[in-house]
């Protein structure tokens, strides 16, 4: 029996969808049509949910035959893993692919923010030309970069900043040892407030969870060095947007650069759009040609692995695999 696979939104590469179609009956549904999503899942065995499409308890309850859920990328804050585990559904993501592109993008944002590279687009050529000698610009070489969250992306950020720009790199991550940090050119700082007080630039790369949600708020922005810059390419909800706007408007922070937001897409009336010293991009840090293809193929291959009776390599709830395998055998043989 061929399994049924539902795609909520298209995958990042057509090649991955074609791969799934070779081995399964594939149905595509629009994330915005909730009823169509629920109806499509009635006989689905596999699901790929394009971020930020929610995979919640209601959805899982509508999918009695579901065996595996794949995230479109690395992040899974849109998937209720606890509910999936209760339902006997394995959840997997696609780790290890975003470090290089996201760190490149973060450094690009930092250069744009610190060197006024959006001036022509923002002000027009004539006004930007007139302001070129009075605009506030700073160099990176020899300055202090503070990295919050030294996982894959943070590690690549440290390598590039230390090796490429000769920056002094400090890192805060309670779950990474000083020895591991030293391997990528970073110095471990035990307390977040100590890093914030020293860094000329702070870049956020933590996982989004209960511990990190809105970890950058009025208190933490006040602890940052006056005149520092803040960047976020992780998840929007690690930042209290109102507090960031206040910190920039007051002049306490010299500027900021963001690729992710508390609510996406960013509202047309967001106060962030009113700030000349804030650089914004549209949640595209890891959406390079190379990484989109790698993410999509990773998701497709892991889903097929699960549907063929083997545990996917990046399962986030591997403790349920025995139940999944038993259910799969009963349904697909």
UniProtKB/TrEMBL annotation:
Domain D-isomer specific 2-hydroxyacid dehydrogenase NAD-binding residues, every copy: 107-285
Listed GO MF terms: NAD binding; oxidoreductase activity, acting on the CH-OH group of donors, NAD or NADP as acceptor
Top-level taxonomy: Bacteria, Bacillati, Actinomycetota, Actinomycetes, Kitasatosporales
Organism: Streptomyces resistomycificus
A Pfam family the protein falls into: 2-Hacid_dh_C
Keywords annotated in UniProt: Amino-acid biosynthesis, NAD, Oxidoreductase
Domain of life: Bacteria
Family membership: Belongs to the D-isomer specific 2-hydroxyacid dehydrogenase family.
Domain D-isomer specific 2-hydroxyacid dehydrogenase catalytic: 10-317
Coiled-coil residue windows: none
Gene Ontology biological-process entries: amino acid biosynthetic process
Name under which the protein is recorded: 2-hydroxyacid dehydrogenase
Keyword Amino-acid biosynthesis found: yes
